[in-house]
Design brief:
about 375 residues; alpha/beta; Rossmann fold; seven-stranded mixed β-sheet; five-stranded parallel β-sheet; 12 helices; about 45% helix; about 15% strand
């Protein structure tokens, strides 16, 4: 069967880019910083799989550095990267090791892309100290910003509730959303806090029904949302449910109800831009790219492109990162003045019974 034109185009563009990367960065060494043991090893494996496949395609040498995710571990990481004379470093799952590595990497001018750290304080410190770090993960306010946009767009004139589960994450997420809504003159009809991990949530569902609530945002985990959806259906109560990124998880144990909405990160493997990278990963023995695999692949693409452009333009790689847009396996990437993603990667998705897919309609 012939492949769609967009997929073929993606492959051609990737191959052309790979030749350019290899030509411009053939002598460059990439540092890949990720856990090699302990509880985060599985995430480290994902980073190494994606990074090594992309580096081989781009002609970059790779030095792997263990990340122990401790406050004291950053110095050893920085020493290893400096000793290896890396031109670029990617990975850094943990803010603790990243923050303690950056002062030494500033001295060598080594750019860093973190795939995980979402700390606002870290980027503020980086700006104050001119640390050379860029963040490929969304900021810790990106999720609430997108959720607020969706609610303001779709729930004007509706009776809606904001529900949290009493956790710090749930309360802070709801507080940020509520503040954004109030700035725009929109007030929730009701605020609720549920008891998480309960076998049933009938009392909550009935309270929402008595208040005339038709739409509810839930800052809780996937199983709590599944429980509320099940109990609403059993009570014959029509309820449109919107969740956050926590819904992008496995069923545990209840199945998520088809039609449930979530603002979450897209399935990068489903994007047309990922097609060529998937071919490279498959050839490298990675048939199912999970978690950080494709973001790590994209980070290496950015590194290789940045190194190549810096060589061509006789400019520091850091200046290239600040001024360029990079075509990657997870879409186009550009960084703002704070070294964060210029575009918010969160989008409105809807559960179709098997996976989250881009929502085809408003949340009503």
């Amino acid at each position: 069967m012939d492949k769609p034109l967009s997929m073929l185009t993606s492959r051609i563009l990737f191959l052309v880019a790979s030749v350019a990367f290899a030509h411009g960065a053939s002598a460059a060494t990439l540092g890949v910083v990720a856990p090699q043991d302990g509880p985060y090893k599985i995430l480290g494996d994902q980073i190494r799989q994606g990074a090594k496949a992309a580096a081989a395609q781009a002609g970059l040498d790779v030095v792997e550095i263990n990340e122990d995710c401790t406050d004291s571990g950053g110095g050893a990481i920085a020493d290893g990267l400096v000793a290896a004379k890396v031109s670029f470093a990617i990975g850094f799952l943990c803010s603790e090791t990243l923050a303690s590595s950056l002062p030494a990497l500033k001295e060598t001018g080594t750019p860093v892309i973190t795939l995980s750290s979402r700390s606002t304080i870290l980027l503020e410190d980086a700006a104050k100290n001119s640390w050379p770090v860029f963040r490929l993960a969304p900021s810790d306010t990106a999720e609430s910003d997108r959720l607020s946009e969706v609610i303001l767009r779709d729930w004007q004139g509706s009776l809606f509730a904001l529900v949290d589960d009493g956790t710090i994450h749930g309360r802070e997420l709801v507080d940020r959303i509520r503040a954004k809504l109030e700035e725009a003159g929109l007030q929730p009809t009701r605020m609720e806090t549920l008891r998480p991990a309960q076998e049933q949530q009938v009392a909550l569902v009935r309270r929402l029904s008595r208040a005339g609530i038709s739409n509810v945002f839930m800052a809780t985990d996937r199983n709590d949302v599944s429980t509320v959806a099940r109990d609403a259906a059993s009570e014959n109560i029509a309820l449109t449910i919107l969740g956050g990124d926590t819904l992008n998880a496995a069923n545990a144990p209840l199945q998520l109800t088809a039609g449930t909405f979530a603002v979450t990160l897209p399935d990068y493997a489903s994007l047309p831009e990922a097609a060529a990278a998937l071919d490279v990963l498959t050839a490298a023995g990675v048939t199912i790219p999970e978690g950080y695999t494709l973001p790590a692949f994209a980070a290496v693409q950015i590194a290789a492109n940045g190194i190549g452009l810096a060589d061509q333009q006789k400019k520091p790689v850091l200046d290239i990162l600040k001024d360029s847009t990079f075509t990657t396996a997870i879409g186009d990437v550009a960084f703002n003045e704070a070294h964060e993603l210029k575009n918010n990667p969160y989008s409105l998705q809807q559960w179709n019974g098997q996976a989250f897919v881009p929502a085809a309609r408003a949340v009503r």
